[in-house]
Design a protein that fits this description.
Elements lengths: L1 E6 L8 E6 L19 H5 L1
Antiparallel strand pairs: 1-2
């Protein structure tokens, strides 16, 4: 199964929206689905 993710491919360049495969988790890991996220305006300038 694939999901959409914003990826940072190069420092200083815009994020790129791509489809990525669902990660495979090990027996001691968990997979968390993020429904929403936010970025502080000042973080964008860093």
């Amino acid at each position: 199964m694939k999901h959409k993710a914003y990826l940072l491919k190069e420092f200083g360049k815009p994020l790129i929206l791509e489809e990525v495969p669902t990660p495979k988790v090990k027996s001691y890991e968990v997979l968390v689905k993020v429904l929403a996220a936010g970025i502080c305006h000042s973080d964008i300038h860093l």
